[in-house]
Design brief:
The complex is a heterodimer of chains A (371) and B (320).
Chain A: H1 3-19, H2 21-46, E1 50-56, H3 61-72, E2 76-81, H4 87-93, E3 98-102, H5 106-116, E4 126-129, H6 136-154, H7 175-206, H8 208-212, H9 219-249, H10 258-280, H11 284-301, H12 313-319, H13 323-335, H14 340-364
Parallel strand pairs in A: 1-2, 1-3
Antiparallel strand pairs in A: 3-4
Chain B: E1 10-21, E2 24-35, E3 39-43, H1 50-57, E4 65-70, E5 73-74, H2 79-82, E6 86-89, H3 101-111, H4 119-125, H5 141-152, E7 159-163, H6 171-187, E8 190-195, H7 198-204, E9 207-212, E10 215-220, H8 222-229, E11 233-239, H9 244-250, E12 256-257, E13 262-267, H10 270-283, E14 287-293, H11 297-305
Parallel strand pairs in B: 3-8, 3-9, 6-7, 7-8
Antiparallel strand pairs in B: 1-2, 1-4, 4-5, 9-10, 11-13, 11-14, 12-13
Helix pairs in contact in B: 5-6, 8-11
Classes of the chains: A mainly alpha (371), B alpha/beta (320).
Chain lengths: 371, 320
C-alpha cells in the first residue's frame, strides 16, 4: 500500500465525479429530492384534514349542531351542499368521493328519542360515496367513530370498554423519522454499488485498467482508493440528507457512533458486491442491468420506504435475507429507537456479510486480461 | 542473422515463446532479440499475434511456454521490478474522460511514485502545449494517442512499448504521431512497436519482424527484407481500355488489377518491362501512365504470406 498512489486515485475519482454532473445529481441530489417529496406527502398526512361535503336536508338547529360537531372533530373541512340539488348527481358531477346527507326530520326524530325516550326513533345519515377512492374508507371510519360516540353519549351511560395507550418508543416518532434512515441506507447502497460497477466495467472496457496494469499501482491500492472514495461520497451525501431533513422537517433523530459504523459497513458490503459483479459481468451495460437487478428488490423489499410489517409473510421472510434490511434496521435502531442491542445485532450480521463479499471482491478483481 | 550481438546489448530476449487461448494458438514458438537503442517493429495483419506477443513482453499477459526476458529479467517472475523501468502504450489506449492532459500526466507520475517528472517537457515532446487544460474526452483521436505516448514516457523508461499507436487515426493524425516517434528514435530510446502499417515500419524501424498466424516469417532491416525477399520490380500501368489486362496475362505474366483499375505486374528483369510495353503498343491500346519501382514491405509481406496486411488502401477511404 502506497498512500501517494491511493491519494492520486482519490483525486482523480473526486475530480471526475465533480465534473460529471449526472453522477453528481443521482448521488447527491436524488436522495434529497426523495426525502423532500416523501417527507412532504407524509407530513401532510400527520395533521391531515379531509374535505367533507354535507347536505343538510333537515335544516334545523339540531342538524346544524351535528355538522358543527363534525367540524370540531378537526379532521374535516366541511363544504355545504345546497338541499335543492340531487346529492348523488352532485357527487358524480364534481367527482367527490363522499357526500354526507342528513335526512329531513332529523330534529324531529332526535326530540322523539330525547323527550319521549322512544327507542324506535332514529335518523339515517347517508354516505354517498365512490368506493374506488382510496381515502374514502378512512373518512367513513372517522365518521363512524364520531357517530358511535354520539350514540354512546345519548345512551346516558359511561362506556364499558375504555382504551389506554402505552408507546413502546421512548418518544413518539413521525413517519419522516422512520423514512430518513432508510433513505440514507439506500442512497449509500446505490452509490457504492453503481459507483464500483461503473468504475470497473467502464475503465476495463475502455482499456484504462490494462494501462494501469503496466504501472506500479497494486490491486490493494486500487481497491483501497475506491473504498475511500465511496466512503467520502457516502459521508457527504449523508450529511446533506440530514441537513435538509433537519432544516425542512425539523426531524429529531439520534446521531451517534452507530451512524458512521453502519455507513462503513454499507459501503463495504455494496462495493464488495459491485466488485464480485464486475468479475462475472464484463460488459458495462449488462453490469449496470445486473446492478439494477440487485438494487431494486433491496430498495423495495428491505424496508427502506415502509416497514416490512406491511408486506405479506413470505416477503417479510425474503426481506430478512437482504443485506440492506440489516442496515435499515440497524440505522433505525440507533437513530430512532435508540436501542444499542438491536444496533449491535444488526451491525454484526451486516458486518459478517460485508467482510465475506468484500474479501470475495478482492479476489474477484483482476488486473490481467484473462488467461 | 549473421552479426553476433553481445548478450548485454539485448534488452529483450524472446525464446520459443508460445501462447494458447484454449484451442487457438495465438503465438507459435517464436524467438527474437531486441537491441538496446533500436526501434523494433512487429509487423503483421490483425490477428497475427502482435498484441499477444507485446503484451507478454510488457507483462500484461503470461506466456503458455517459452522464455521472455526484459532488461535481463524474467517477465513472468519480475513484473514488479520491470514495470517501473518500462513505458507502455497499450492497444486501444484510453484514459479518464474528465481529467485534463496535465492532471493525467501528474496522476501517472504519482503512480510511479515520482516527484520530479518533467510534465511540461513531456507535453512539449508530444506537442500538446495548447491543450494542457483540455479534458481527455475532448481531445481528438490523434491527440489522445499523443497523450498516451507522453504517459508511456512519464517514468523515463528504458524500453517503450507502443501497441498499434496509429491504428484508427486519419492520415494527418498518423503523421503527427510519427513525428513524435521520430523524435524518440532520434533520442535513442529503445522502442518496441507493433503495427499493420507498412509505411510506419519502413519509416521508423531499424529492425522489422514480420509475423503471420503466430509465426515470425522474416526479420531484418526494412532494406534487407526487401533485398532478400523481393528481387523483382513492380510495373504499374494505367490503361484507357480494359483489354490490356488480357494482353499482359497472355504473355505469361500474372497481372493484378487493383480497385483504382491500375494493373500491377511483377517482373524479374527490366527487359520484361520493355516486352510488355511493346506488346501493348502493337495491340494499339493507349496507356495513361506507367511506373516502375522496387517492391515495398507490403509486397514483401504479400509474397511471404499470400495475405494482405489489411483491407483497403492506406488512406482508409475504403474501396469505391
Amino acid at each position: 500500500m502506497n498512500p501517494r498512489v491511493v491519494g492520486a486515485n482519490l483525486v482523480v475519482s473526486i475530480k471526475s465525479f465533480y465534473r460529471e454532473k449526472t453522477a453528481m445529481f443521482f448521488t447527491m441530489a436524488f436522495p434529497i429530492i426523495l426525502i423532500l417529496v416523501f417527507g412532504t406527502i407524509f407530513m401532510d398526512q400527520e395533521n391531515v384534514s379531509f374535505h367533507l361535503y354535507v347536505q343538510d336536508l333537515d335544516h334545523t338547529d339540531s342538524s346544524a349542531q351535528l355538522v358543527n360537531t363534525l367540524e370540531l372533530n378537526g379532521k374535516f373541512q366541511i363544504t355545504k351542499v345546497e338541499p335543492a340539488v340531487n346529492a348523488t348527481q352532485y357527487a358524480k358531477n364534481n367527482k367527490l368521493n363522499l357526500v354526507l346527507t342528513i335526512p329531513e326530520g332529523y330534529e324531529r326524530s332526535l326530540m322523539q328519542r330525547m323527550m319521549r325516550n322512544d327507542p324506535n326513533a332514529s335518523a339515517t345519515i347517508t354516505y354517498i360515496y365512490d368506493p374506488s377512492s382510496t381515502s374514502v374508507a378512512t373518512k367513513m371510519e372517522i365518521l363512524n367513530s364520531v357517530f358511535a360516540e354520539i350514540n354512546q353519549r345519548m345512551s346516558g351511560k359511561p362506556p364499558f370498554i375504555r382504551s389506554a395507550e402505552t408507546s413502546i418508543l421512548t418518544k413518539k416518532y413521525r413517519f419522516i423519522e422512520f423514512f430518513i434512515p432508510g433513505i440514507i441506507a439506500m442512497a449509500v447502497m446505490t452509490a457504492s454499488l453503481f459507483g464500483t460497477v461503473n468504475l470497473n466495467t467502464e475503465l476495463r472496457q475502455k482499456g484504462v485498467i490494462r494501462k494501469l496494469s503496466t504501472t506500479p499501482i497494486t490491486r490493494t491500492d486500487w481497491i483501497l482508493a475506491n473504498i475511500l472514495y465511496q466512503f467520502i461520497l457516502a459521508v457527504i451525501s449523508t450529511i446533506a440528507m440530514l441537513l435538509v431533513s433537519y432544516a425542512v422537517f425539523h426531524i429529531s433523530l439520534q446521531i451517534n457512533a452507530w451512524l458512521p459504523v453502519f455507513i462503513v459497513l454499507d459501503v463495504f458490503a455494496f462495493v464488495g458486491i459491485g466488485m464480485v459483479l464486475t468479475r462475472f459481468v464484463r460488459e458495462a451495460q449488462s453490469a449496470a442491468a445486473a446492478a439494477n437487478a440487485i438494487m431494486f428488490p433491496m430498495m423495495f423489499l428491505s424496508g427502506s420506504f415502509f416497514p416490512i410489517e406491511m408486506m405479506p409473510g413470505f416477503l417479510q421472510t425474503l426481506a430478512r435475507i437482504l443485506p440492506l434490511y440489516y442496515v435499515n434496521e440497524g440505522l433505525r435502531a440507533s437513530m430512532v429507537f435508540v436501542d444499542n442491542m438491536a444496533a449491535l445485532r444488526n451491525s454484526a450480521i451486516i458486518g459478517v456479510f460485508a467482510a465475506v463479499v468484500f474479501i470475495m471482491g478482492i479476489f474477484a478483481t483482476k488486473w490481467e486480461e484473462g488467461k | 542473422m549473421g552479426s553476433m550481438m553481445k548478450e548485454a546489448e539485448h534488452v529483450i530476449e524472446v525464446e520459443k515463446l508460445t501462447k494458447r487461448y484454449g484451442d487457438l494458438l495465438a503465438v507459435n514458438d517464436i524467438s527474437f532479440n531486441v537491441r538496446k537503442g533500436e526501434v523494433f517493429a512487429l509487423l503483421g495483419p490483425n490477428g497475427a499475434g502482435k498484441t499477444t506477443t507485446v503484451e507478454i513482453i510488457d507483462t500484461i499477459r503470461t506466456p503458455t511456454s517459452g522464455k521472455v526476458s526484459l532488461l535481463g529479467m524474467d517477465v513472468t517472475k519480475k513484473k514488479h521490478d520491470i514495470v517501473p523501468r518500462i513505458g507502455v502504450l497499450p492497444q486501444g489506449f484510453s484514459s479518464f474522460d474528465r481529467i485534463t492532459v496535465r492532471e493525467t500526466l501528474q496522476y501517472y507520475s504519482r503512480l510511479f511514485r515520482l516527484r520530479d517528472t518533467d510534465v511540461d517537457g513531456l507535453i512539449e515532446l508530444v506537442t500538446l502545449k495548447d491543450k494542457t487544460q483540455e479534458i481527455y474526452k475532448n481531445l481528438s483521436g490523434g491527440l489522445q494517442q499523443r497523450l498516451g505516448i507522453a504517459i508511456a514516457l512519464v517514468n523515463d523508461p528504458e524500453v517503450v512499448f507502443l501497441d498499434e499507436p496509429t491504428t484508427g487515426l486519419d492520415p494527418r493524425a498518423r503523421r503527427e504521431v510519427w513525428d513524435v516517434l521520430l523524435g524518440l528514435k532520434k533520442k535513442g530510446t529503445t522502442v518496441f512497436l507493433t503495427t499493420h502499417y507498412m509505411e510506419e515500419a519502413e519509416l521508423l524501424a531499424d529492425t522489422v519482424a514480420i509475423i503471420s498466424k503466430g509465426k515470425i516469417i522474416a526479420m531484418g532491416s526494412p532494406g534487407e527484407l526487401i533485398e532478400s525477399n523481393a528481387n523483382y520490380l513492380v510495373l504499374t500501368l494505367q490503361f484507357v481500355d480494359e483489354q490490356a489486362f488480357e494482353i499482359v496475362r497472355k504473355m505469361g505474366f500474372e497481372p493484378v488489377q487493383d480497385n483504382r483499375k491500375n494493373i500491377k505486374v511483377r517482373v524479374e528483369h527490366t527487359d520484361d518491362v520493355q516486352k510488355i510495353l511493346n506488346a501493348i503498343k502493337d495491340a494499339g491500346t493507349s496507356l495513361h501512365s506507367l511506373d516502375v519501382r522496387k517492391p515495398n514491405l507490403e509486397e514483401v509481406f504479400l509474397k511471404l504470406t499470400g495475405e494482405a496486411l489489411r483491407e483497403g488502401p492506406a488512406g482508409g477511404r475504403g474501396a469505391e
